[in-house]
Write a structure and sequence with these properties.
The protein contains 7 helices and 10 strands. It is of the alpha/beta class. α4 links the parallel β7 and β8.
Length: about 280
């Protein structure tokens, strides 16, 4: 369901749509996109990226809390899930990689925007599981509410966005192969997909493959999500590992390996995996 933020910019679907009123002065329309793979995981004809292989086993997709995610996120959480250092690093990354005037899809978003305040974008569409949170996000022109673990289709025409973002949420996707294939579809050629995360999570809602992994293995898992979809460029990884407990950082090899594997705590570590559709633009 696509839910519009109050005072949205015009949305122009390719087919006529009948709108009906819902709370928050919002409008909605049905999805129109064919799924990228069928129930038997066999490829189908689709404009989504071709899934070359499945990354996760059935066991790796399981969660401790098996109830629908819409129930877990039914009540808004007006909190930040990472610290100020992580947010600052992410905003700097967006400032570097997202061009002014871009059209952006913010997947699994919330009430907080991490986009640079001083940069103007043509259109920012948000997605999430709680309409109250999304309605408070000041950067969203409109948004839609959907459980991507129930239906991976994105309510968008193909080649519709210059960038797709996913912040501290990739650990909850049970069918990341399908979601990444859909992201490939909605990106324009040369468009970028930025997936960022830290070591925080709702433990009962994270998939088994993420819960049981280390920081290093989680980065490699996201790399594999990109690599399983034909057409993404070779993923680029970014790591920013803070010093422990505010002390001077120990740059010795054992300390570096321990922090890389997530064994030492401190302020929130920053990880991002980035890839482009078909090619990386020369101006990047």
């Amino acid at each position: 369901m696509l839910t519009f933020h109050p005072n949205p910019k015009p949305w122009h679907p390719s087919t006529p749509t009948n709108f009906s009123s819902i709370p928050f002065k919002a409008r909605s329309f049905p999805s129109r996109i064919a799924n990228s793979i069928n129930e038997k995981n066999e490829p189908k004809q689709s404009s989504a990226g071709k899934i070359k292989r499945l990354v996760l086993t059935q066991e790796g997709r399981t969660k401790f809390n098996a109830y629908p995610d819409r129930e877990f996120y039914a009540y808004p959480r007006f909190v930040t899930h990472v610290d100020s250092g992580f947010i600052s690093t992410l905003t700097d990354l967006y400032r570097e990689r997202l061009s002014p005037g871009s059209e952006i899809l913010d997947l699994m978003s919330s009430w907080v925007s991490h986009l640079p305040k001083e940069i103007e974008y043509k259109r920012v569409v948000g997605h999430g599981l709680n309409a109250q949170e999304l309605a408070k996000n000041p950067r969203l022109d409109y948004f839609f509410v959907k459980d991507l673990n129930q239906d991976q289709k994105l309510e968008s025409d193909s080649c519709n966005f210059d960038a797709v973002l996913c912040t501290v949420s990739v650990q909850y996707l049970q069918y990341p192969e399908k979601v990444f294939a859909e992201v490939f579809r909605v990106l324009r050629p040369g468009g970028v997909f930025i997936v960022s995360f830290s070591n925080r999570l709702f433990y009962e809602k994270a998939i088994s493959a993420w819960r049981d992994g280390t920081a290093y293995s989680r980065v490699q898992l996201v790399v594999q999500y990109f690599q399983c979809v034909e057409g993404f460029t070779q993923p680029e990884t970014i790591r920013k590992l803070p010093a422990t407990n505010g002390a001077q950082e120990d740059k010795g090899p054992l300390s570096w390996i321990a922090r890389l594997l997530g064994f030492l705590s401190g302020s929130d570590p920053f990880y991002a995996v980035i890839a482009y559709k078909n090619f990386k633009p020369l101006y990047e």
